[in-house]
Each structure stands twice: as structure tokens, then as C-alpha cells.
Amino acid sequence: MRRPNLISKWNSQSLAKQFLVIGGIVSIGAMLLVGAFVTRLIEDAVTRNSAATTALYVDSVIAPLLPDMQTSQALDDTVARALDETLGQGALGNRLLSFRLWRSDGTVLYSNDKTMVGKKFPLSDELKTAFAGKMAAQFNELDDVEDKVERLAGKPLLEIYNPVLQPWSGQVVAVSEFYEIANDFQHSLRQARLHTWLAVAGFTLVFFATLSAIVLRGSRTIENQRHALSQRIDDLSALLAQNEALRERVQRASERVTALNESYLRRIGADLHDGPAQLIAYASLRLDSRTVVSASTSPVTREREVASIKASLDEAMREIRTICSGLVLPQIEAASLSEILERSVHAHRQRTGTIVELVTSSIPVCLSPSAKICIYRFVQEALNNAYRHGGGAGQRVIQRLQENCVSIEVADDGPGFSPDDVGPTSLGLAGLRERVESLGGTFEITFAAPGTTVRMTLNTEEAEQI
Predict the structure, then answer these.
(1) Domain map (residue ranges) of the chain
(2) Which of 180, 319, 374, 444 is geometrically suited to a Cys-Cys bond with 455, CB 3.0 to 4.6 A?
(3) Distance (Å, rounded) from C-alpha 59 to C-alpha 98?
(4) In whole angstroms, what is the distance from residue 433 CA to residue 377 CA?
(5) Contact assessment for residue 402 and residue 364, using Cβ atoms and an 8 Å cutoff
């Protein structure tokens, strides 16, 4: 369980943090490897160059003292004393701690340590390299068997193996091994190491810092894009949920509209049947009455009967016009919100003869034609209900604008009614609710004793696009 937690915790880190950790480890490892490699190369080069200089100087001093090494298998006492005097005083005496002259079979022909003269040792890698004709050098690596005295000296030593060549043939006839006291060389080598490590570390730091800046910038861009994408996904998810809810609401509204249309048709049929149809039927019956068709009826009686029939037909015509005026909308597409409210209120005043107070906002509001029709029908139906159930007492229409929402309120001071008396199939209120909610608005009814308030609210930005 611990490993998956660590992996998940690592994966949860930003790309910049992951790069800083992994890149830092890789950069430090690369710096150590490159630094060690470059330092080693510089140490070898400095050691080789310094040893070559010393070897050339020593060879120039001792070469004239040596006999023909190809024919001589040992050094006589004269040559040994000359070497002792040369190596024990002057510049060489101060620079060299030890000196040996080797034969190719590993025998020490000469040494300033007389106990080693004539002894035979196995050839080291450096001796083999020198007998092959190449100079060899190493610094403070006193690991050979014959280096006991040098190890006990406790000084920094530059160990040099230089081939002794026959002048006329160039053949290696012996190898001179000497140990130079290298205090200055050690200081120079330390400075070279320090400068090398500083250069490698500085370059690695600059390189890593440059890459880190690029990666940090890229990571910041990726994080910003990821955040924006996540925010957009959240917005799209919320919008999808809203669209789904709206789709369901539209579907329910469509089902309700079908039922409401049937209810409207039934109500119109009932209004025509109970009103104009009855009056026309009454007039038709009176036309067939004896009072009208009988020749014995006096002119005065017939004229009174005809006048009654005409009054019944006139009343039927008025009711038909009233029904038609409620069904046909005025030209409201180009009208403003205040003009729509004024027209609906004026039509109600003319139809009922009641007083309606109108309060509107002076701020202009842009609405779509469907929103304007919805507001007109809302005020028309709400005032009809106020007149029918409240007797037209205290009727008022109030329009408010709050932020991006327009609110229309129709209220009266009638006796009111209980919410329990309003069923879900109530034609007027159900129609108003479906109209308003189909446009994304809200519909509210507030019941009081006395008084009733019906309120609708539409978002002006949404209503402008619908």
C-alpha cells in the first residue's frame, strides 16, 4: 500500500517539481562524472608535462655520467660516486628524494639507498612502460614494493620513470626512476582541481537553471491551460446539466401546452355556448314565436318583440367581440415594455370599467417578441383573475428592474383565495406558469387575506436571445 501511495503522490506533483527533483539528481550525477573525468584528464596532463620537464632536466645532467649501458651490466665505483655527488648536491639534491637506475630484468643498477643496489624486483607497469620507450609518471601513488623509504618520507612526491636511450641507436638500455619533491606541483594541482570543479559546477548550474526556467515557464503555461480546461469542463458540465434540466422542462411544457390548448378550446367553446349561442338561440326562438309571425299581433307588440330580439343579438355580438379581443394580440413586436403594459392595462380598463394602477420603470429593456407576448398575456390573465375573483378592488400592475432581471407584479385587494383551491389543472394559472417557465423565468403567487399577488421574473439577457 505504501508504494502506490508514493507513486500517486509523485504523480500528483507538478511537472516543474518533478523536473527539479529528477533533473537535479541527474545534473548532480552528471556534474560529478564530468568533473571527475575532466579533473583526471587535467591531472594526467599536468603530471605528464611536469614530469617531462623534470625528466629532460635530469636526463641532461646524468646522461654524460653513464657508460655504455648496452655493454655494461653494472656500474663501477667511479660512475657511482659521480652520480652520488651529482644527485646529492645542487639543484638535484634539493629536488630529488630518491633516484634509481633499472636494468631491463628488474635489477637495480644504482640507487642513492645503497641497500637496494643489486636487488632484483618484479617490473611494475610504469617500468614496463618506460622500457617500452615511453615516459611514465604518477603523483603520490607509492604502492610498489621498493617504495618503502618514499612512503615513510611523508612528502608529496612526483614519481617519474624515464627511459635511458643509446645515443646512436635510440634503443632503451635502462630506466631511471626518481622521486621529485612536489610541494609546488601539489599546490598547482590543487588549484587546477579547484578551478576545474568550479568551472564544471558553474556550467552545470547555469545549464540546469536555464532548463529549469524554461521548464517552469512551460509548466506554468500547462498548469494555466489545465486550470482553464478544467474550469471550462466544469462550465460545460454545469451547462449540460442546465440544458438537460431545460430539455426536461421544455418537454413537460410541451406536454402541458398540448393539454392547455385543449383546455383553451374547451373554454372558448363553453364561452361561446353559454354566452352568444344562448342569446342567438333565444333570438331564433323568438323569431318563430306567434307574436312575430301572427298577423293578428298588433304593430306595437310586434315592434317590441323585434326590439327584444335585436337586443339579444346585439348582446351576443358584443360577447363574441369580447371573446375575439381577448384572443387577438395587438401589434406589440415593436412596442417597448412600458407600452405593452399600458396597452394591456388600457384594454382591461375598457373591458371591465375598473381602475388599474400602473407603475413602470423608466429604464429601457430589450426583450424578444416571445418575451413581450408572455408579459402581455401574463398581465391580461392576471388582471382577468383579479377582476373575476377579487371584483377589481385595488388592482395594480408594478414593473421593476433589478440587475439583469425584469419583474412584473399584478396585485389586488380582493378577498383572496386558498392555495388549496388552485388545482394543478387550473387553466389560467397553469397557462401563466407554463408561459413564464418556458422562457426560463420564475412564476410566484402570494396569497393574503385580503389580497393576491402574482409575480413573474425574466432574465433580460436570456429573454433577449429567446
Answers:
(1) 13-192, 329-464
(2) 444
(3) 15
(4) 11
(5) no
Beta strands, E only, 151-248: 157-165, 172-181
438-453 residues labelled b (16+ CB within 10 A) or e (exposed): bbbbebeeeeeeebbb
Return d(Cα 102, Cα 117) in angstroms, integer: 10
> DSSP assignment, residue 397?
E
| 337 neighbors 375 (Cβ within 8 angstroms) | yes
Hey, how many other C-beta atoms are within 10 angstroms of the C-beta on 315? Answer: 17
Check residue 283 and give left, alpha or beta (phi > 0: left; psi -120 to 50: alpha): alpha
Q: 3-state class of 362 per DSSP?
A: coil
DSSP-derived secondary structure letter, 276: I
CA dihedral 225→230→233→237, nearest 10 degrees, is -160
Q: Which three cell numbers stand for residue 116?
A: 637496494
- pLDDT score at 398: 93
Which residues make Cβ contacts (< 8 Å) with residue 123, sequence separation at least 6?
A: 106, 131
Please check whether residue 406 is in contact with residue 432, taking contact to mean a CB–CB distance below 8 angstroms.
no
Q: Do domains 13-192 and 329-464 have the same CATH topology?
A: no
Question: Is the dihedral angle over the CA atoms 45, 125, 112, 62 positive or is it negative?
Answer: negative
CA-wise closest residue to 377 among 326, 427, 336, 416: 326
Q: Residues 428, 421: contact at Cβ < 8 Å? A: no
How many helices and strands, by DSSP H and E, does the chain display? 14, 10
Q: For the chain, how many residues are written? A: 466
Q: What is the CATH class of 13-192?
A: alpha beta
So what's the architecture of 329-464 in CATH? Answer: 2-Layer Sandwich (3.30)
Among candidate residues 276, 254, 268, the one with its CA nearest the CA of residue 328: 268
> Quick one: cell of 327?
384572443
The pLDDT tens digits of the residues spanning 260-309 come to 667 667 767 766 766 677 667 767 766 666 666 666 667 777 777 777 77
CB 365 within 8 A of CB 408: no
The C-alpha torsion from 445 through 370 and 430 to 338, rounded to 10°, is 30
Cα separation, 436 vs 365, whole angstroms: 17
Among the listed residues 319, 378, 387, 318, the one whose alpha carbon sits nearest the alpha carbon of residue 352: 387
As beta bridge partners, residue 51 has none
Instruction: Tell me the pLDDT tens digit for each residue of 401-450.
Output: 887 889 999 999 888 766 565 555 455 677 778 778 878 889 998 877 67
